[in-house]
Amino acid sequence: MHIQDSHWSTASAIAPGGGAMGGAMGSTMSAAGNGRDASRSAPLRVDAQRNLEHVLRAAREVFGELGYGAPMEDVARRARVGVGTVYRRFPSKDVLVRRIAEEETSRLTDQARAALGQEDEPWSALSRFLRTSVASGAGRLLPPQVLRVGVADEVSDGYDGARVPQQRTTPGSGELRLVPEEDPMVSADDAGAAALLEVVGQLVDRARAAGELRTDVSVSDVLLVIATAAPSLPDAAQQAAASARLLDILLEGLRSRPV
Questions:
Q1: Which pLDDT score, from 0 to 100, does residue 113 have?
Q2: How far is CA 66 from CA 25, 63, 148, 149, 173, in A?
Q3: What does pTM read for this prediction?
């Protein structure tokens, strides 16, 4: 698994070094918004509904394997439909990318809320979220506005850690950090990403307060675990085994140790 932020440049809300989705993506979405809404709500014929499901399934697979830079032709080929069929449902690649990213972000948020609500023990809740998220493969499709990391060379004066509870950065330390919510690169359309960050922040806070999570572990670290613990291998059994083994190692790295 490799993080696909470099492939998001034409479709990303926030790719490192890229622009805000409110620009190019926003204009695309406003022009094609009716098409996206129709793809979700308008009643479809049986064959059209089947084609839509095939396209969405193929898009998850292709983008999960190759990143969001994969061409629409690859999606159409995997779905066994013509590329024109894909464009009839999704007027631009940006629309399809956003649809997949939104669904995967929502899935992760649901998994985090389930772990938070159904596990009494803080560490059990965090580890359950990580295991279910990695097993679902959603980490391969995390959009950059969720997995927004960089080297913390400087700490912004306006950053108080509100977006990522107790997020710590040390100048020159090379520590990974999430971009603060007030960053101008963050689009107003990122409600789904904000919801995910909020609930994962609660899982992190609980585990840290219980003394079960290393004090230097942040939300960005947890999301990086999800993104990197789901390698894409040609053999499904090998992939599952590799993911489970890698996650066990990463979980041990997250746990606090008695001094």
A1: 96
A2: 21, 5, 19, 20, 32
A3: 0.66
